[in-house]
Design a protein that fits this description.
The chain is of the alpha/beta class and 788 residues long. The chain folds into five domains: 31 residues; 134 residues, Chitobiase/beta-hexosaminidase domain 2-like (Chitobiase, domain 2), CATH 3.30.379.10; 311 residues, TIM Barrel (Alpha-Beta Barrel), CATH 3.20.20; 75 residues, Immunoglobulin-like; 147 residues, Galactose-binding domain-like (Jelly Rolls). It contains 17 helices and 35 strands. An eight-stranded parallel β-barrel has the order 8-9-14-15-16-17-18-21, surrounded by six helices. Helix 11 links the parallel strand 17 and strand 18. Helix 4 runs parallel beside helix 6.
Length: 788
């Protein structure tokens, strides 16, 4: 063979090898690479008991099948299949047992596991969920969903997503058997459809109790066929939604317009059946002896006074118009009502309320006094105990158990009652010591109707503050409990009272993500709880909420500021913080653009002149959530002497004599220590500027929160003087009263007609002369007088 032929043959061989390599590269480019998972990709809430991550992954595709071990598992698996079709386009089908050895999800019954427990094992060719009951399988599926890409939750087809999950093994079980949410549908009515959506979301958080607060003064929400007026009359009230909840006793011509609603018995049956399919027990609350004006409006004979009343449109306090326990007709009515309720709700527990009863009428009612003599009762508290015990006997005779708020302890606890402790832990501790079961739901940790972020930027809520971090700190077993007492703690629940929550969107905002925090307190082992770890997992949960269309709150992102003033050096320090650990907080000074030229916050910002601060939490170098904006204003009266011609109430003294001129503004929380308050009188103060200064404007900072009777001023006068004796009026501002359902802050700026030289400034702020609501005083709250 010649050298030329050899060269030609070698070149052909090289070209062939290059061609093979090229084909390999082309093929490799068209094969999607398997995602490699780390422990950081597992973001399950509530946190499982044990999680072990293994190498490899399982991928869902059109060949994936589901194998069941019992017919009852089909509805649990069907929800998974339905959502897969919506968001992935993959149609998963059922397979006959053992006919699909690979690419399969297997539901396998394991009677060695405890109630509600599950084991989830993922390998490259199959997913296995083991449980002893349907609840365990449901929770296994919910965990499976949370390790899928967040796009799974979407309501439309998602493109270019690899539907893979990591190979792992999870062993999990709940810590407590009662993991609930109380939804107040009486103060504001929520549609059946919203209740059904809430059930889905409870199941996703592995919660198993929905406590429906169906009865209160402001509305009766469940159809009782024997007493039709309960919904014909009791379910409707005058529509005063434009007024603050606690000012709605004002009479107006428009009171004929009605607000309300109720659930028919068919609605209740549908809600209960749907909840049962999600392993959730619906517990009805039928209030007694108080919070029942809606029932008395329908049937006046149920009260001591036997007088017709209207269904209240807003807050009622004290609650004196309550059921009369001296009349047999009261118990006949309640047993009839409860008989229908027992038919509708198959729950083991029936909640009877029992809270906040002011028993004034019982002390003078001839029927009640006769009952006390007959039963040898000394105090009206014992009469309440008689009332509750008699109702408990009826409930027990029907095979159910009574649960009530911790006030049912007063006068003696019924023998088999369960206590729901809301006024802190005290009632629960007392009940557990007596051998009673307890559901812990202390308001400071579990009332999700409280504010969860800075008052100034949050929608209206009930007074009090429950940030996400504090909700996460909830521990149902009190540290003082013995092991024996701790066994009586069934669990706990979140409570959403709806006085200030009038829409479904607002309801979602108040519930989420605090429900996620509380779910972990009730499901996960105490040793597995860690705020920093939860905070990280919550970021993924937020993506799921967004995909599901939940109006969740991002209040935990919000920056709050705390200001302190040094009057000697005339400097103000501003401390910035939020709820997340090691937060990346950045800020800008006198700029609106928070995205560039920011300063990283590390210590309190020292200010010596009027400054506008804008700050935000940053993640991945981008601002997150609503920014914090604050203007600290230094002015000519700062740290000057203030003399009071009318004195504020001692309880609301703010920072003392310099409060009105310390440069610090108050928030919508009038307990924040920066407000001075006058009750049913005007404010009159004089500021000594110490030297003559040119003045062109005076601004008065005030608050309005008509619920607790805080009203804006109706007039402000500013007078000036050179000698402190003779004053000249410079400007008057008048403002008529307006109904206002919100909590608001205002700066009333009074510009002088021309610049004035003065050493003394007198400010007279006139309060509303009479509260529009009867028999109540008027508060005037002022935080700062700014002199420019």
């Amino acid at each position: 063979m010649s050298n030329i032929n050899k060269h030609s043959k070698n070149m052909k061989k090289i070209h062939f090898l290059n061609y093979i390599a090229f084909l390999f590269l082309i093929t490799a480019c068209n094969v999607p690479s398997k995602k490699e998972f780390t422990i950081d990709d597992i973001n399950i809430i509530p946190k499982p008991s044990e999680t072990v991550l293994n190498e490899g992954s399982f991928t869902f595709n059109k060949k994936t099948k589901i194998v069941l071990s019992t017919p009852s598992q089909k509805s649990i698996a069907s929800d998974l299949i339905q959502q897969f079709k919506i968001s992935t386009g993959i149609q998963i089908s059922f397979a006959v047992k053992n006919s699909a050895p690979e690419n399969v999800v297997i539901f396998k019954k394991d009677t060695t596991l405890s109630k509600e427990a599950y084991h989830l094992t993922v390998t490259s060719n199959k997913v296995t969920i083991k449980a002893t009951d349907d609840a365990g399988f449901l929770y296994g599926v919910q965990t499976l969903i949370q390790i899928l890409p967040t796009e799974y939750e979407a309501n439309s087809l998602q493109q270019n997503i690899e539907w893979s999950i990591p190979n792992l093994e999870i062993k999990d079980k709940p810590r407590f058997g009662w993991r609930g949410l109380m939804l107040d549908v009486s103060r504001h009515f929520f549609r059946k459809e919203y209740v059904l959506k809430t059930i889905d979301r409870l199941a996703a958080h592995k919660m198993n109790v929905l406590h429906l607060h169906l009865i209160d003064d402001q509305g009766w929400r469940v159809e009782i066929k024997k007493y039709p007026k309960l919904t014909e009359v009791g379910a409707w009230r005058a529509d005063k939604e434009d007024l603050h909840w606690n000012t709605r006793d004002i009479k107006r011509p428009t009171d004929s317009i009605k607000y309300g609603g109720f659930y028919t018995q068919e609605d209740i049956k549908e809600i209960v059946a749907y909840a049962t399919s999600k392993q959730i027990t619906v517990i009805p609350e039928i209030e007694l002896p108080a919070h029942v004006a809606s029932a008395i409006a329908a049937y006046p004979h149920l009260s001591c006074k036997n007088e017709g009343i209207e269904v209240p449109s807003g807050g009622v306090w004290p609650i004196t118009n309550i059921y009369c326990p001296g009349k047999e007709s009261t118990f006949e009515f309640l047993e009839d009502v409860l008989s229908e309720v027992l038919e509708l709700f198959p729950s083991k527990y029936i909640h009877i309320g029992g809270d906040e009863a002011t028993k004034t009428l019982w002390k003078t009612c001839q029927h009640c006094q006769r009952r006390m003599r007959t039963e040898k009762l000394k105090e009206v508290e014992e009469l309440q105990s008689y009332f509750v015990k008699r109702i408990e006997k009826f409930i027990n005779s029907n095979g159910r158990k009574l649960v009530g708020w911790d006030e049912i302890l007063e006068g003696g606890l019924p023998p088999d009652a369960t206590v729901m402790s809301w006024r802190g832990f005290k009632g629960g501790l007392e009940a557990a010591k007596e051998g009673h079961d307890v559901v812990m739901t202390p308001g400071e940790f579990c009332y999700v109707n409280l504010y969860q972020g800075p008052y100034d930027v949050e929608p209206i809520a009930q007074g009090g503050y429950l940030p996400l971090k504090k909700a996460y700190q909830f521990e149902p077993v009190h540290e003082s409990m013995t092991l024996k007492e701790a066994k009586h703690v069934l669990g706990g629940q979140a409570n959403l009272w709806s006085e200030y929550v009038s829409t479904e969107s607002h309801s979602e905002y108040m519930i989420f993500p605090r429900l996620a925090a509380l779910s972990e307190s009730l499901w996960s082992e105490k040793k597995n709880k860690d705020w920093a770890d939860f905070s990280s997992r919550l970021m993924i949960q937020f993506k799921r909420y967004k995909a599901q269309g939940i109006n969740y709150s991002e209040s935990a992102f919000l920056i709050s500021g705390d200001t302190k003033v040094d009057l000697e050096s005339k400097t103000i320090s501003l401390l910035l913080q939020n709820e997340f650990p090691e937060s990346d907080i950045r800020y800008v000074i006198d700029s609106d653009d928070i995205s560039k030229n920011t300063l990283k916050y590390s210590t309190a910002i020292q200010l010596t002149k009027t400054t506008r601060i804008k700050a935000s939490l940053f993640r991945n170098d981008k601002p997150v959530g609503r920014p914090y904006v604050k203007t600290i204003q230094f002015h000519k009266a700062m740290a000057k002497k203030v003399s009071y011609q009318t004195h504020h109430v001692k309880k609301y003294a703010g920072a003392g004599p310099v409060n009105l001129v310390d440069g610090l503004r108050g928030s919508k929380n009038f307990f924040d220590g920066k407000w001075q308050g006058w009750l049913s009188k005007d404010m009159e103060v004089t500021i000594d500027l110490e030297e003559e200064k040119d003045i062109r404007k005076v601004t008065v900072g005030a608050m309005e929160d008509q619920g607790p009777d805080i009203y804006y001023p109706i007039q402000i006068k500013v007078l000036t003087s050179l000698d402190g004796e003779k004053f000249t009026q410079q400007v008057v501002f008048n403002r008529p009263y307006k109904a206002n359902p919100n909590t608001d802050l205002a700066e009333f700026g009074l510009e002088f007609p021309k610049k004035v030289t003065a050493k003394y400034i007198k400010v007279i702020v006139k309060a509303l002369p009479k509260n529009p609501a009867p028999n109540r005083g008027v508060w005037l709250f002022v935080d700062e007088i700014i002199v420019e």
